[in-house]
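Supplementary Methods S3. Complex input for the flavin-adenine dinucleotide-bound model.
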Amino acid sequence: MFSLFVVCYLLSLKNIFCTIIFARTKFYMENTYGDRMSYDLIIIGAGPGGLTAGIYARSRMMSTLIIDAAEVGGQLVSLYPDKAIQNYPGFERIQARKLSDRLYAQVESLGCEIKDKEKVIDIMDSDEKLVVITDKDEYHTHSVIVATGMGMFRPKKIGCKGEDKFENKGLYYILPPKEELIGKNVIVFGGGNSAVEMALIADSVTSTTIVHRRDELRCDESNTIALKDSSIRTVMSSELVSVNGDDSVRSVTLKKGDETFDTEADIVVILIGISSDLEDLKRWDLELTESGLVKVDNAMRTSRNGIFACGDAVDYEGKYKQITTACGEAATAANSAYKFVKKPYWA
Ligand SMILES: Cc1cc2nc3c(=O)[nH]c(=O)nc-3n(C[C@H](O)[C@H](O)[C@H](O)COP(=O)(O)OP(=O)(O)OC[C@H]3O[C@@H](n4cnc5c(N)ncnc54)[C@H](O)[C@@H]3O)c2cc1C
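Predicted complex, serialized as structure tokens:
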């Protein structure tokens, strides 16, 4: 009887404790974000553009939510996590995943709310606010920044025999982690920066060949020099006919002119570009450029009131798709959203 009394007493103490914690959290959330599902700014996309917009928005104390359909980090984590970025100011070299982690940590420390694996489906007008509808919920906001990059991008397929059969069984569209490459014959297909950079990473741990269908690569001079200084074997003017093997990849068949020949391979990496899925931008009723990307003015305003855009999702004459340009545009977009929402006397 006494032990029953002690258990009941402890349970009621626990309930009181939980109620206090809940009330304090609610008080904090309401004072930080107002109505939990209502924000000053919602940023769609957590690539470098979206994360930088978050940093600027929070420095202006805007209640901010960032939503990403996939992982935080955008292309840096989904396409080239192991690549050493050598053109982000302040770092001579920084691994893409590490740069993404740092941006993430900075945004979180400033009090941005972040939701990943949640896809934005629509942006609706509602009285004075906008309603962002996702596949899980809906959120009210005074402004939106579209930082969706190339949308829900997919790597381009090469269209050869065996491609589907060996996908993820020796044939990949992003370079597997270095540890998985050791002792294997790696063949990279493609002639742009991505292909050369990934071949250089593979070459640092194993025997690597790069195959390109043209007679000249299409990459930066620094990559051409690094390639010449490496032990990578280059096979130019050659096409991939088939990927061959049993349970796993054993070889590839290449065609150069009229000649067809086999080369041993354990891992095939196809890096011939990205197909972007820009359907979302059409659905959101934003004015688009001929390239299907968002049209913006100098303040990163879109054709819809209260909606701004930055990064790879936007296009204008001279646009250069890079991390630094996405970050610069993000700063402008966040500043414009701030002026739009808070209407400071100086704006
Ligand atoms: C192989 C490769 C190497 C590169 N190397 C460099 C380099 O060395 N230096 C450099 O400066 N640049 C480099 N770039 C370019 C750079 O990665 C991009 O310019 C940059 O990532 C653009 O950032 P972003 O934030 O605009 O878009 P992204 O990084 O594309 O991020 C967009 C995010 O939006 C999300 N999203 C899309 N649609 C929705 C939706 N409907 N709802 C919610 N979320 C959505 C996506 O999941 C994604 O996470 C490289 C690109 C590639 C492909």
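The CA atoms of residues 311 and 326 lie 4 Å apart. The pocket of flavin-adenine dinucleotide is lined by residues 44-50, 67-70, 74-76, 79-80, 85, 87, 119-120, 147-152, 194, 274, 280, 311-313, 321-324, 326 (CB under 6 Å).
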